[in-house]
Amino acid sequence: MPVFPGRANFDAPMIYQKDFGQSSVLSDSDLHKVVVLGGGKSSADMVYVCVKAGKSVTWIIRKTGGAGPGFLLSSQGKDFWDVIGQNVHIYLDDITKVDKKLIHLSGAAKILTDVILCGTGWSKTSFDFFDAEETVRLGLPHKLEEEQSEDLAEWARYEKEADSKILADFPMLAEAPKHFHKSPETTPYRLYNGIAPLSDASIAFVGFTSVANYFRGVECQAIWATAYLDGKLALPALEVQKKRVARTVAWSKRRYLSNGELGNFPPLESNFYLDGLLEEVGLRSHLKGWFSYYFVPSKAQDLAGLKEEYITKYGSS
User: Fold this and answer.
1) pLDDT in tens, 18-35
2) Residue 17 and residue 19: Cα distance in Å, rounded?
3) Which long-range contacts (CB under 8 A, 24 or more apart) does 210-214 make?
4) Residue pair 30/24 in contact by the 8 Å Cβ criterion
5) Cα-Cα end-to-end distance for the chain
6) pLDDT at residue 67 in the model
7) Strand runs (DSSP E) across the chain, as ranges?
8) How many of the other CB atoms lie within 10 Å of CB of 12?
9) Which of 22, 122, 204, 288 has its CA 20 to 30 A from that of 261?
């Protein structure tokens, strides 16, 4: 939940995205003026259903780092873009403070609201249960000054090498479109396959890679992590793992600009990434043939046979 100056004097309720479905926003006639914060799918869904419920909707996407609605695909009706274009006031701006029922934007606009809906996501880079030394050792995002200079130099060398190969294969990525670039405050994730630390085989991190479908993503990651922790996988040499991690980071930065700075952002390559995990485990029941792979949507039912296939291959203990 975001914290804004003046929050103590703000008279309108603020509702987080996970609580929206259980709230009375859609049915409460006193909550007519609705402001939605955030530039992701949760925000888009809340904007759409609020308009459909007859609300007066304003959508605020922060100027400093918001992805914006053009990046997402909503699961709502086919009239999504018409509904948004004809009924929603959109601001690409930052909130400077809130007071009474007013939201103040940096561009001087003031917006009156009865409720704020926060589709602002959650922090993935807070690992407070690890101390600074452990965070560095495990390859989790940490402040640049917390890393040894020789380690920074080594990773910079790996990323530079990877970036050169990426640009050789995809030269159009050399010229980035005009965009707001948010400089990183931490190192990227340095986990093999976005899951496994390079220095500790006793722990795995599932759900920290931003794929397009998290249900499919965590299922495939959990299967890979299970095989990894059970010692069923033969991982490549450490040098090879480092180069793959560096390529993942370099690709994320080139392909997704500011959104890719943490090196864990392959939403448009999700199926390739997840199928790669299952291939390393040696599972194939999810595959549908080359035509269906490219032209038929991926569904949850595609993964229905993986558990039994895994048990057959590796046993249940």
Assistant:
1) 999 999 999 999 999 999
2) 5
3) 210/264, 210/265, 210/266, 210/267, 211/266, 211/267, 211/270, 211/273, 211/274, 212/267, 212/268, 212/270, 213/270, 213/298
4) no
5) 41
6) 54
7) 14-16, 33-37, 56-61, 88-92, 95-99, 102-105, 110-112, 115-118, 191-192, 196-197
8) 19
9) 204
pLDDT of residue 16: 94
Read off the amino acid at residue 218: V
Q: What does the CA dihedral 250, 256, 259, 262 come to, rounded to 10 degrees?
A: -10
Name the nearest CA neighbour of 105 among 121, 90, 88: 90
5-9 LR contacts (CB < 8 Å, sep 24+) = 5/96, 5/97, 5/98, 6/97, 6/98, 6/99, 7/98, 9/98, 9/99, 9/100
pLDDT of residue 213: 80
DSSP label of 180:
-
Angle ∠(181,184,186) on CA atoms, nearest 5: 170
Q: In 10 A of CB 106, how many CB atoms?
A: 14
Cα angle, residue 119 at apex, residues 179 and 100 outer, rounded to 5°? 105
CA distance 271 to 144: 32
Position 185 scores a pLDDT of 85
User: What tokens appear for 272 in the block?
Assistant: 């390739």
Closest CA to 303 of 195, 217, 207, 225: 217
**Residue 175 in tokens:** 């010229």
What integer pLDDT is reported at residue 68 of this predicted model? 55
Here the tokens at position 101 are 């029922």
